[in-house]
Design goal:
heterodimer, A: mainly alpha, Serine Threonine Protein Phosphatase 5, Tetratricopeptide repeat, two-stranded antiparallel ribbon, 48% helix, B: mainly beta, Immunoglobulin-like, Ferric Hydroxamate Uptake Protein, Chain A, domain 1, 22-stranded antiparallel beta barrel, 5-stranded mixed β-sheet, 58 strands, elongated
Chain lengths: 477, 1107
């Protein structure tokens, strides 16, 4: 009696006791697995995957905290940098959501009216878990491998595992995702992960671990599905009013309808001194903007006549950080809000595009010596950019270099550059040269900027996680 | 010796009362005032007792015969309650001098029941219900007038036939019975640290709630007036801060009902209790007295008892008070005047022109308003003054108490109205109380009471940020004017602008106050019903039901004519916020009291079972836009933009008990326990047990003390116990399914996730040891009390950082501990007694707070927020909530810059602000170079109360204050901000202007870079919060009873003049050294003053009438 009197559950929110009933709840949980990914891309991933690279830098602005973002651009990388901890936290938050779903979905009492939903939800969880780990392993190397929901006490017992184990888990998860998605192809919806997204991501994973034959096989599946093609006009990819799913295989979804659903990329990437003239929202204070500013290195990477340049990079004429009026470059891939009155934008953020699949496929072939077979796929991407000169006669090494450059310009601002540099073992060389050019151009950089030490290719584990969890820090930090 | 200290052995069955009394006289030294011809003496009574105190015996007799007894030294008088004419009958039979007269108290009110005895005899009488008496005596006799709670008076008869006597209250005696948890106790039997507030001292203070009256009255109770807004809540800390995550406010218990804990800065929960209805206030401080409140007692308990009727008396009182409130000049902002402000703006433009066009600026570059400096004389618009006013305050209370021999009724009606010194703010209260108690049979008592109160409050946004009306009025441009040429109020002030100069335009704060509506209307009823059954003379059972019903609505309307900073008003943008709240809280308590005495042992025990449940519902709706501002109800809005509903419930089952044991009346022990089961605790930890033990030794009762005549009472107390804090949220232990949303293409979907649960989540625990000494001397004319305590709070509710690989970064857990150690001293006395009397009491409390441990994983808790940076830090080894920021070193000088090794950065240039590089890495970074820059906790707090009286005049002065402790003025982020949109503090006249004119070396120059960081959290913001305040001065005049008597109906009347907050002495430049931003947690972010609603000085006149 006393216990009944003292047993009170909230009326206005659900609690776990009687939640898992039917597919309805698991669809909700699967939807929930995407949410951390959205927040990662919105706030932090671009800092550690694009800003850090030679593609972009920032408009000088002392108030916005060089302690977090500006230092990463300058390759001053420390374990207390919030960008890494935010990325770490959100990634594991996402992983926990997928783990929870995968554990609870087998509850016998759940009444499934259509088992395809069970397959799709499992597939989504496997796919997203693989994606979260893929980003983690590319940043940090081996990390703790958590595949079930754990308590704080259990977490304290878990250490890091090797990079290989993480990749093995990612590959296994993607294969599971492929198996599950194959049973639910009729339930595919725009924006949800699906069978081809799983193949495409698997291809990228294999490419990263340099298993080119496996990469080739996986990517071939996407090409052979005949579901995807390149949009004729590169600019259409970045038209927020026309969300594209013919070239985009998987993208993080945003909408201007609410604060939670939206991103504010243009409000971060426009020069802060431009106030409302680029964002078209003069009432929104963008004092902490000016990020991901295209560098001269990126500008110079575009070949003459590349149609992608004007789409990707725009200029604003006005006072710069020091008050002097200049043509200030900024990214053109992210657009002001269509109708939201404030800083809510709905541009989706691409994770896997068809052009990526084509270039990866070409790379996988080229690395296996099938240069001739690879050329048409590169040609396809260049044709769309208006660079239609024939590539015939390219040798393996030439093509390798061309693909790298193509990837740099095709995917600028899409969080690919840093991973590509690392994957192709070019990071030290490229960043050293880039750093020297930046130091020569900009007098506001730190004295210690651009010291390209090899250990910095692996990000430091967040300092507080080292403390809490007694994890081993990466060497050099 | 007192009747409760003397024991007799009696055993009678149907014996005449007369014989019983004679037997008592035989066994003791007491004498009864017996008129042999009284018929009631023939009544038969039965008493069977091995050993019983005279008091209990007489109570038992009283319950059988309807007699009342009164002890006067060795004499015990008695009278039959309804027999008013007994005295006059005597008159006819005795042939000595007949003396009659009136006995009244010092306010002139008649005193019934006063014993009048002819000294040296047993003959005497008692004053009747109108205070009148008559007695026969001889010319040489002396009459002795005695009454509990008053000093004895002796008057020689001589030839007088009329002797009127005014009894003087005995301050010491008044305190004799104190309210403790679940009962009352005689003061000398108290073993814990319990303080009472002298209701008389604070009676006439012109404030809205009792907590404001208690300021300076009790040692160790820190009452902070965090806002001066009418009806605003105070923050009360008893013996420091013992919790990081669950609040530090004490538990209030009103007439036995745990009333509220937790601070509400907008509307004080105690504002619902009309202070005129309060009879007594007791503060329980140590664990032995708070443990009986178990999981809610850790922060101390404030017990409030409201008035009840008295048997056989009718009292009608009426009091009225009216006054005016003003904002003192001290504490008002001191900003740049017109000319200085224009010069600052011109300096900014000069820099801008140089930067952009690389030339000297000309007059044309300045906005027209700034061109002619000589025309700008005087201060300009004082926006702060513009929105303040002299505001009236008034308070009326009517109180009727009527008692017969078996029933008591109490009725009161109150009206309070306080307009705010900030225009368009105020509070209005209608309160009433009706209480009835009746003795159904001599041993069965029934009572009910209701206390409905309605409050209507007009609010304005203050204590928030620079955008609120007070914030704007401080930084607003002094050159702009609030009225246009035609004398109409401008809704929106457009700041002077030019090509080189953008500045913040703003809504006219006076216009905002006038046009914006923010009101809260609340109703609350306190209900009580109880039944008390004396099963045996020493066994009592009580069952009670307490309820609190509350309903409130909040309405805010922002019309489209009200703009914001840089946001001009736009037609058709009006928006409204509506909130509806209701709650019901019920408590059933069943208690049994059993008393037992044998030999020199005496026991008093209590057992109880209580059950309580609370539920509340809150609905809010935000609607906009409104096509026009004519109709502001929701139906006129085009859409409801957001809405929500919150339901909160908790329940509690408790078992409690207490044993008081005394041996030889000098060795006292108290043991208490309470077991609380709460819905808030996780299923693994549902019941919490809180025991305590206390002992006291009344040293002065020992035989060896008999020779020390100047010491009346010396008692040593020691207590140890445990109490808890259950303010951990209602559902914190459960894993909730939280919902977010995601979008696939254009389809918005809900995405859920499962939270982390903590089934072992539980209360915070506080262990406290207290050692105290009570000392009364010089015939109780002086007293001294000292307490030492050490309170250690464990299992603190913390958001603990957990490994992120769990998917979560924090979890609410019980960990960490905080210790408060302190000394409290209270002392006072009556240095002068007689026609002129002087009464003084003072208190001082020293408390040292220290965080002993936090969670396992982090070494510090950062809190507060200013421009995204923390303002406070809590670390192990320091008090909670230290100020955290840059150390300001001044400005960069050419000498410094010419040193080798100075790290070059765009912010390092001559005249710019120089902060200390705390971590020594060569760079100045937010947070990384922050350090502890101040301590908000005072070294000690004190209060001093003086009461003087001469004839019919009385004068009271209350002083309180704190020494040590600092305050952070958060608005400095704006008023130290030379970036130029805002007016800045006058100190910036001393700013760096050029190498030749470097100013005072502390205030940096107009920044060259935008944004500048000359206004980061720094030592500049931290100021000394020590203060001394003359909190109240009251001068009263009691109209002589001879005069009021002539008015027939009037028994007494008193006129008074009072000044609240007469003066404040402090070095703090802001409005209120106790100010606290409403949106900052005052445990982790204490002492953060932001646009404080100023405390007013109130002057008022009042009258108290008694009929």
């Amino acid at each position: 009696c006393a216990d009944d009197f003292l047993e009170i559950y909230p009326d206005t929110t659900l609690s776990e006791g009687n939640f898992y009933q039917s597919q309805e709840e698991f669809i909700l949980l699967a939807n929930g697995c995407y949410i951390p990914l959205r927040d990662i891309e919105k706030n932090t991933h671009w800092v550690i995957a694009e800003l850090i690279s030679d593609n972009t830098s920032f408009q000088y602005n002392i108030l916005t905290g060089e302690a977090v973002r500006g230092v990463i651009d300058q390759f001053i990388i420390t374990a207390d940098n919030r960008a890494y901890s935010e990325f770490w936290n959100l990634s594991y938050n996402g992983i926990n959501r997928t783990n929870k779903l995968l554990v609870e979905i087998d509850r016998p009492e759940v009444a499934w009216s259509d088992l395809a939903y069970k397959s799709r939800s499992s597939g989504e969880a496997y796919f997203l878990r693989a994606l979260y780990y893929f980003n983690l392993v590319r940043q940090f190397g081996g990390v703790p491998l958590v595949l079930t929901p754990i308590s704080a006490q259990e977490a304290l017992q878990m250490g890091r595992v090797s990079e290989e184990e993480i990749y093995a888990s990612i590959i296994s998860d993607l294969n599971s995702a492929i198996d599950q998605f194959a049973l639910a192809t009729q339930l595919e919806e725009n924006g949800r992960a699906n069978l081809n997204a799983a193949y495409g991501l698997l291809g990228k994973v294999y490419l990263t671990v340099k298993e080119y034959d496996n990469a080739e096989k996986a990517l071939k599946k996407v090409i052979d599905s005949n579901k995807y093609s390149l949009l004729p006009d590169y600019a259409d990819l970045y038209d927020p009013s026309n969300k594209d799913y013919t070239e985009t295989i998987f993208s993080v979804q945003y909408s201007e309808n609410s604060r939670e659903l939206s991103n504010r990329f243009i409000f971060m990437f426009a020069p802060w001194s431009s106030k409302g003239s680029i964002t078209q929202r003069p009432n929104i204070n963008i004092i902490s903007a000016g990020w991901n500013q295209p560098t001269m290195d990126l500008l110079n990477a575009f070949e003459d006549g590349d149609k992608r340049k004007d789409v990707s990079i725009k200029f604003w004429n006005g006072p710069d950080w020091d008050g002097a009026v200049r043509d200030i470059p900024y990214t053109g891939k992210f657009k002001p809000p269509i109708s939201a009155p404030d800083d809510r934008t709905g541009d989706n953020f691409p994770v896997l595009r068809y052009s990526d699949v084509l270039l990866m496929y070409a790379e996988a072939l080229n690395e296996q010596g099938k240069t001739g077979e690879a050329l048409p796929y590169v040609q396809q991407v260049r044709d769309r950019a208006g660079l239609d000169a024939s590539l015939s006669g390219y040798g393996k090494a030439e093509l390798e270099e061309l693909i790298a450059k193509e990837r740099q310009v095709e995917f600028c601002f899409e969080n690919q550059r840093w991973y590509d540099l690392k994957r192709t073992d070019k990071a030290i060389e490229v960043m050293t040269a880039h750093g020297q050019r930046e130091l020569a151009q900009k007098d506001f950089l730190y004295n210690s900027a651009y010291q390209i030490d090899p250990h910095k290719l692996l990000a430091p584990l967040p300092a507080e996680q080292i403390l809490i969890n007694s994890l081993t820090q990466n060497p050099g930090y | 010796q007192k009747i409760d200290e003397v024991y007799v052995k009696v055993s009678f069955n149907e014996e005449k009362l007369l014989n019983v009394l004679h037997e008592v006289e035989r066994q003791t030294e007491f004498q009864f005032t017996i008129h042999e011809n009284e018929t009631y003496l023939n009544q038969k009574v039965s008493v069977r007792s091995n050993k019983v105190s005279v008091e209990d015996l007489l109570k038992e007799i009283g319950s059988q015969t309807g007699l009342n007894f009164q002890q006067v030294n060795r004499n015990i008088s008695m009278w039959l309650a309804q027999d008013k004419s007994a005295a006059t009958e005597d008159l006819t039979q005795i042939s000595a001098i007949s003396i009659s007269g009136l006995v009244s108290d010092n306010t002139g009110a008649p005193l019934p029941g006063v014993t009048i005895i002819v000294e040296g005899t047993t003959s005497g009488t008692v004053s009747d219900i109108d205070g009148r008496y008559s007695i026969e005596a001889e010319a040489g006799d002396v009459l002795v007038f005695s009454f509990i709670g008053f000093s004895q008076q002796k008057v020689a008869v001589a030839n007088q036939t009329e002797i009127n006597v005014t009894m003087r209250e005995d301050e010491q005696a008044l305190d004799e019975v104190v309210v403790v948890g679940y009962g009352t106790q005689k003061k000398e039997d108290v073993t814990g640290s319990v303080a009472t507030v002298n209701e008389k001292t604070i009676k006439d203070l012109p404030v809205s709630s009792v907590d404001q009256k208690m300021i300076g009255q009790v040692a160790g109770v820190q009452i902070q007036q965090v806002s001066g807004a009418p009806g605003a809540g105070t923050s009360i800390k008893i013996r420091g801060s013992g919790s990081l995550g669950a609040g530090n406010e004490p538990l209030y218990v009103v007439d036995g009902m745990p009333y509220s804990s937790g601070m509400n800065q907008s509307l004080n929960p105690l504002a619902f209790i009309d202070p005129n209805n309060i009879e007594s206030i007791t503060i329980l401080k140590d664990a032995s007295s708070t443990a009986i409140y178990g999981s809610r007692g850790a922060n101390g308990v404030i017990m409030i008892t409201t008035k009840k009727g008295t048997y056989n008396q009718t009292n009608i009182t009426f009091s009225a008070m009216a006054g005016v409130q003003q904002v003192p000049q001290k504490g008002r902002p001191n900003m740049l005047n017109q000319r200085e402000f224009a010069q600052l703006q011109r300096d900014r433009i000069d820099l801008e022109v140089d930067l952009r066009e690389n030339r000297e600026s000309t007059l044309e570059d300045y906005p027209a308003e700034y061109r002619d400096l000589d025309a700008l004389t005087g201060r300009g618009t004082d926006w702060y003054d513009l929105i303040l006013r002299d505001a009236p305050i008034q308070d009326y209370n009517f109180n009727l108490q009527k008692g017969t021999e078996d029933s008591r009724i109490n009725f009161s009606l109150g009206y309070f109205n306080q307009q705010g010194v900030l225009k368009e703010t105020g509070i209005e209260r209608f309160s009433t109380k009706l209480g009835i108690e009746t003795d159904i049979t001599p041993n069965l008592k029934l009572g009910v009471s209701i206390q409905p109160t309605y409050i209507s409050q007009q609010r304005a946004n203050t204590n928030l940020n620079r955008e609120d009306v007070l914030g704007v009025s401080i930084w607003a441009n002094p050159i702009s004017t609030p009225y246009d040429e035609n004398g109409n109020l401008k809704p929106y002030i457009v700041a002077p602008q030019s090509k080189f100069h953008s500045a913040w335009s703003f809504a006219n704060p006076l216009y905002v106050l006038q046009e914006m509506t923010t009101e809260q209307k609340s109703f609350q009823n306190l209900g009580l019903a109880f039944l008390e059954w004396s099963i045996l003379p020493n066994l009592r059972f009580r069952s009670s039901l307490n309820t609190i019903l509350e309903a409130s609505k909040y309405f805010q309307y922002v019309p489209s004519t009200v703009g914001g900073s840089n946001r001009p008003p736009t037609a058709g943008t009006g928006n409204s916020t509506n909130t509806r709240y209701n709650s019901f809280n019920w408590l059933v308590e069943n208690t049994v009291n059993y008393d037992l005495s044998f030999g020199e042992h005496s026991f008093n025990s209590l057992l109880g079972y209580t059950i309580q449940r609370f539920n509340s519902n809150n609905i809010n709706l935000n609607a906009s836009p409104y096509p026009n501002d004519l109709i502001t109800t929701i139906n006129a809005a085009q859409a409801i933009n957001s809405w929500g509903e919150a339901v909160n419930e908790w329940s509690m089952i408790s078992y409690l008990g207490r044993i008081n044991y005394s041996f030889k009346e000098r060795y006292l022990f108290t043991a208490t326990f309470r077991a609380d089961g709460s819905s808030r605790f996780g299923s693994d930890n549902r019941f919490a047990i809180f025991p305590s033990l206390a002992g006291a030794w009344r040293v002065s009762e020992e035989e060896f003390f008999n020779d020390i005549s100047w010491i009346d009472n010396l008692k040593l107390r020691v207590s140890y116990g445990k109490s808890g804090n259950n303010n951990i949220g209602n559902y914190a232990h459960l894993a909730n399914i939280s919902a977010g949303s995601y979008v696939f293409g254009n389809t918005q979907v809900t995405g859920s996730s499962v939270g982390i649960s903590n089934p072992s989540l539980t209360w915070e625990e506080s262990n406290q040891i207290d050692v105290g000494l009570d000392f009364d001397f010089f015939n109780s004319r002086a007293f001294f009390m000292i307490d030492y305590f050490k309170r250690r709070s464990n299992n603190m509710l913390l958001e603990d950082v957990i490994p992120a690989i769990t998917g979560f970064n924090s979890q609410t857990i019980n960990q960490g501990s905080v210790q408060n150690t302190g000394i409290e001293i209270a002392l006072g006395g009556t240095p002068i007694a007689g026609e002129f009397s002087w009464n003084i009491s003072g208190n001082v409390a020293f408390n040292r707070n220290e965080v002993l441990s936090l969670n396992d994983n982090t070494v510090r808790i950062l809190s507060g927020n200013n421009d995204g940076n923390p303002t406070h830090i809590s670390v192990v080894g320091k008090p909670i909530g230290q100020f955290f920021g840059f150390v300001l070193e001044g400005v960069y000088t050419p000498e410094y810059l010419s040193q080798p090794g100075v790290v070059n950065s765009p912010q390092v240039y001559e005249g710019n602000v120089k902060y200390k590089d705390v971590n020594g890495d060569g760079f100045i970074n937010d947070v990384l170079d922050y350090t502890i820059i101040g301590n908000p906790h005072p070294d000690f707090i004190f209060g001093l109360t003086n009461n003087f009286s001469y004839k019919n005049f009385d004068l009271g002065v209350i002083i309180n204050g704190q020494v040590g402790g600092q305050v952070m003025n958060g608005l400095r982020q704006t008023t130290d901000n030379l970036q130029g949109f805002f007016n800045v503090d006058r100190d910036w006249e001393q700013r760096w202007r050029s190498t030749e004119n470097p100013g005072d070396g502390i205030h940096s120059g107009v920044p060259k870079l935008k944004p500048s960081w000359g206004h980061r959290v720094s030592t500049l913001w931290v100021e000394d919060a020590s203060y001394l305040r003359i909190a109240n001065l009251t001068l009263g005049y009691t109209i002589p009873s001879s005069l009021s008597e002539k008015m027939k109906v009037l028994k007494s009347s008193r006129l008074y003049f009072t000044v609240q907050n007469l003066a404040m002495f402090t070095n703090y430049k802001g409005a209120n050294p106790e100010g606290q931003a409403a949106n900052q947690n005052n445990t982790l972010v204490p002492g953060f003053d932001m646009t404080s609603y100023p405390l007013s000085r109130t002057m008022s006149l009042g009258i108290n009438l008694s009929f």
